[in-house]
Amino acid sequence: MEQNLLVRKLEGYGPLSVNDRMVIEKMTAANVATFRAKSNILADGECPEQIHLILDGWAARYKTLSNGKRRIMAFLIPGDFCHLHVTVLKQMDHGIIALTPCKAAMLDSRKLSDLANKRPNLTRALWWTTLVDEAVLRQWVVNATRPAFTAVAHLMCELHQRLKSIGLVKDGKFELPLTQAELAEATGITTVHLNRTLKDLRESGLIELRAHSLFIPNFAALAKAAGFNDRYLRLREGKKRGDDIRLVNALIGGDSLAVPN
Amino acid sequence: MEQNLLVRKLEGYGPLSVNDRMVIEKMTAANVATFRAKSNILADGECPEQIHLILDGWAARYKTLSNGKRRIMAFLIPGDFCHLHVTVLKQMDHGIIALTPCKAAMLDSRKLSDLANKRPNLTRALWWTTLVDEAVLRQWVVNATRPAFTAVAHLMCELHQRLKSIGLVKDGKFELPLTQAELAEATGITTVHLNRTLKDLRESGLIELRAHSLFIPNFAALAKAAGFNDRYLRLREGKKRGDDIRLVNALIGGDSLAVPN
DNA sequence: CGGTCCATTGATCTGCCTCAATTAACGTGG
DNA sequence: CCACGTTAATTGAGGCAGATCAATGGACCG
Fold it and tell me: Where is the HTH crp-type domain (chains A, B) (predicted)?
């Protein structure tokens, strides 16, 4: 990873000081693990000792049902944590699989805890990532009951916005290194039906997808078809609040931080 | 509320000191609001000033879709927070409606923040509630793609276990003050189909439901039919960890706390 | 005692699933 | 660099779970 995408992601929430950035970069560079495509990063039931942070590649949260089918409940991209709260909930209630070759920083939870205690704006930024994950999940619940066309379109919008926030979208185009089977598991429909739905989306001119590269010629049009509104992703949520960050810092007992307006 | 159900809920996670209990009880008693059935507790887009904690009654998180249909994404019962993190994310990305007459404590977020800072085990317990909410949401994503029979059975199991953890289940029986339309919105199926599904569940002897009172004669049987495993609800998660709570307290810089084994 | 909301049931329709097969892409060793 | 095996994408045909439309009975309430 040329540049630290966690830094970039967190800055999507609010300003970080130079120190914050340095500390994050040092921490995430310390201990990096590599995972092969289709290998498990964390198994269901496992009790991880460290916090995994995706630095490169795509991963997914999933559960395997009793009938052997798998349901993907979230896609993880660079800057996403696998299990931020190992100290509160030890055991995984789902698995995490690398969909592509992945690199992940292995963070010591104690160190991260210490760090967050000293840097309230970092604490808030970490909180923010958790709450956004939850908001995305709520949207997936909604999506799961909508018609396939809308649901798939919505997923494309979500991925576009999330990847854009970490700088992985160029001219409305981004890498989507997922198989149709994986997309199907994430939308809760069959591979066959997903394929037909993609065809519909292509034929309606909303997306261009070939060789795992997705191009959205007109994002507004796709968003309209999908009923997508990125408000729930809370990009720039913290920036809008610059004014009261000092108050918040005081409130949670943290050190002060110069905040650009 | 005869006894404070938040206390009871949090004790489902781990031990609270006498002080913790007192502080919570005082705080939740201070400022209580009442909501009529079918009234909005928090509207989508609203920026709440206070943290709402359900003390009595049932509420639901929901989103209204562009076609006017509503999707319920969570049921809130006594002890549940509506929006614990008003300081991190100001604006609601969904609405919260009282399904029955409700009472809710209105907590000052600043005070709660202060309190949590002084009481690390309370902080951890609050974290726990957030993480369990997320785990439930993941399960709802899975549920939304399963057949109606299984999905409804699973919901019944979830509600049974959650209500049991706050002492609202007696002899396998509890009040379920929801209309079939509301249950349908929560499972993502039609009212008509939900009705038929309930009929199926009744006829297979797994549930007895009449006059908004649900009786589960054989929970294990229902759980088996639903593919339900309550591990994800993390009841007694903290208790199992009693041994290392001191370590954790030290880790997050908190005061020490006597822990029963 | 009529109005309103809720539960229940029937009949019909359809989006998506299942089963099945063909074609395209990809990787790997000869 | 091509042949071949494997995995991924695509298309067809038929079936079913659940949606839609419609109507009736029951419960609660002012």
Answer: 146-220
